[in-house]
Amino acid sequence: MAAPRSQGRLGAALGPILAAAVLYLGLGLPNHPAALAPDILLVMPLEWPVILLGLAVLPPGRSVTRFVRLAFVAVLTLITLLKLADFGTFSAYNRGFNPLVDLHLIPAAWNLGSGALGTGRAVAVVAGLGLVIGLLVWALWWATGQWARLSPRGLWRGLGTAALVPLTALAVAEIGQAMRVWTLPPPVPANIPGAAFTARVAVERVQMVRQTAARLAEFRLAARTDSFAGAGPLLDRIGQRDILLTYIESYGASSLTNPRYAPTHLDTLAAIEADLEDRGLSMRSGWLEAPIFGGQSWLAHATLSKGLWIPDQRTYGAALVSGRRSLFHIAQDSGFETVAVMPAITLDWPESEFMGFDRIYTAVDLGYRGLPFNWVTMPDQFTLSAVDRLLLQGEPGADRPPVFAQVALISSHAPWTPVPKVIDWETIGDGRVFDEVAQSGDPPEVVWMDQDRVRDQFRQAIDYS
Questions:
Q1: What secondary structure letter does DSSP report for 104?
Q2: What percent of the chain has pLDDT over 70?
Q3: Nearest to 378 by CA among 445, 456, 449, 432
Q4: Widest CA span of the chain, in angstroms?
Q5: Shortest CA distance to 299 belongs to which of 247, 234, 368?
Q6: What is the C-alpha separation between 27 and 194, in angstroms, rounded?
Q7: pLDDT grade for 464, boundaries at 50, 70 and 90
Q8: Residue-wise DSSP of 316-375
C-alpha cells in the first residue's frame, strides 16, 4: 500500500514543479539578442518566488483567484510581447521598443519580412509567432492554476505570507539598484543573487512612455518656435548653382570603420576623389549624427530639413504640422526651384505638402520601364539619369531657375539583392536594359538564410551606390 501512496504524492508534486519551471522560463526570457545564452537560466528571476508564494496563499474564493490569475497572465503576456518587440528593434535599430511611437514599425516589419523572405514564409513566421503566443497564454494559465490550488493552511499559510515581504523588498531593491534609482546601503548585499528583470522591463517601459509624452510636448513647442521665420533670403550667396542633397540609403559610419566593408568603400572613395580632381573639383567629408539607426531614413531627412531632432514617428508628425519652415522653404525664398526625387515612394505621399517642394517625382514619375530589384523600384543609376534629364537640362539662371533638390537613392536599401552594375550612361534609356541583372542571382529568401551573404550583399550594394 505504501508504493501507490508515494506515487500519488509524486504525481501531485509534479504539476507544481512543472508549473514553477514554466514561470521561471517565462520570467527569465531576455529582451536582447546578445543575452540569448545558456547561462541566462542561471540568473534567478527575483519575481519568481514572490509569484509562486503569492499564488499559493491567495485567499479562498474562486472569483478572487480567477481575477488574480487573469491579471497576472495578461500582464506577463504583455511584457513578453514587449520583450519580443525589443528583440526586433534592438536587431534593426539598436534600441528598445517604445509603444508610444513605434507601433507603425509593425507593418514596416511585415513589408520588409515579406519582401526578404517571400509572402508565404512571412505568413508562416507570423502564424508561428501567433501559435507561440497562444501556447504561452495557455501555459501561464495552467501554471498559475497549479500553484493557486495548493492553498496551504494554518502555519504554512502564515509563513508563506510573511515570506512575501522580504522577497518583494529584495526584488524592488534590485530594480532600483539596476535602474540606478538608489544604491543599496549595508547590510543589504550590493550584489543581489538574481534579477527582477521582467518587472524592471515593465517599470522601464512605463517610464519610457511618460518621458516620451513629456518630450513630445516640449518638441511641439520647439517646433512652433522658428528662429528663421521672417529672416529673408538665407541662401542667396550660393548664386546660380544647383544644389543636390543626395541620400545613400543604409550608408553610415560602419561602411568606413567596419573592417568587413571599409577596404572596399575607402578604395572606391579614393578613386572618386582622384577622378574629381582631374575634373577640377574637390571632395570634402564630415560627420552628422543620425537620429535613427538601421532604418526609418525619412526621420534623418526630416531632422536635416527641419533643424530639429526627430527620432520617431510622433515627433515627425508634430514637426510636419507645426508650421516651422524647412530647408526647402528657405531655398524657395532664395530663388531656387525645390524638388523631391523619391524613387521609393509608390503610394500617396500626403506629408509632402508640408515640406516645401515645388515639384515631386515619385517612382511612377521617373519613367522607369524596367523590372524592379525586389523591393527596390529602380537602380540608382537610372534615378540619377532621370535627375539629369528632368531637372538639370540647360544652365541654371539662364535657361531655368537653379534647382535645390532632395534625391533619395535606394539601391543600397535591403534586401541588397540583386546588386545592379554600372553601365554606359548613354545606354540607360527607359531602364529595360537593367532587366537581365534584375533577374540574376539568388532571391532574398535564399540570401537571407546566410548572415555572411547578407553582409557581403550589403557591402556590394553600398559600393554600387
A1: T
A2: 94
A3: 432
A4: 108
A5: 247
A6: 12
A7: very high
A8: HHHHHTT----HHHHHHHTTPEEEEEETT--S--GGGGGTT-SEEEEGGGTT--S--BTT
* Residue 3, pLDDT score: 52
Distance CA 215, CA 312 (A): 11
The C-alpha cell of 270 is what? 579614393
67-79 pLDDT, tens digit per residue, is 888 999 999 999 9
Cα–Cα distance, 83 to 199 (Å, whole number): 12
CA 125 vs. chain centroid, Å, equals: 18
Q: How far is CA 126 from CA 120, 174, 176, 449, 459, in A?
A: 10, 35, 36, 17, 29
The rounded distance, in Å, linking the Cα atoms of 339 and 83 is 42
Contact in structure between 339 and 403 (CB atoms under 8 Å): yes
Pair 147, 52: CB distance under 8 Å: yes
Q: What are phi and psi of 424, to 5 degrees?
A: -60, 125
* Residue range 85-104, pLDDT digits in tens: 888 888 777 778 888 777 77
For 3-37, b/e burial (b = at least 16 CB within 10 A) is eeeeeeeeeeeebbeebbebbbebbbbbbeeeeee
Average pLDDT over residues 195-214: 86
CA distance 394 to 423: 24
Q: How many residues does the chain have?
A: 465
The DSSP call for residue 415 is: T
Distances (CA, A) of 429 to 223, 365, 392, 448: 44, 15, 17, 32
Task: Find out whether the peptide bond into 187 is cis, omega within 30 degrees of 0.
Answer: yes
Place of cell 513647442: 221
Q: Which three cell numbers stand for residue 386?
A: 532621370
Which grid coordinates belong to 173? 531593491
Rounded CA separation 43/193 (Å): 8
Instruction: Name the packing angle between helices 105-117 and 119-148 (round to 10°).
Output: 130
With a cut of 70, say whether residue 11 has pLDDT above it.
Answer: no
How open is the CA angle 143-149-151, to the nearest 5 degrees?
A: 130
Q: Using a cut of 0.85, tell me whether the model's pTM lies above it.
A: no
- Determine the pLDDT at residue 242: 95
Instruction: Give tens-digit pLDDT for 393-447.
Output: 989 988 899 999 999 999 999 899 999 999 999 999 999 999 999 999 898 889 9
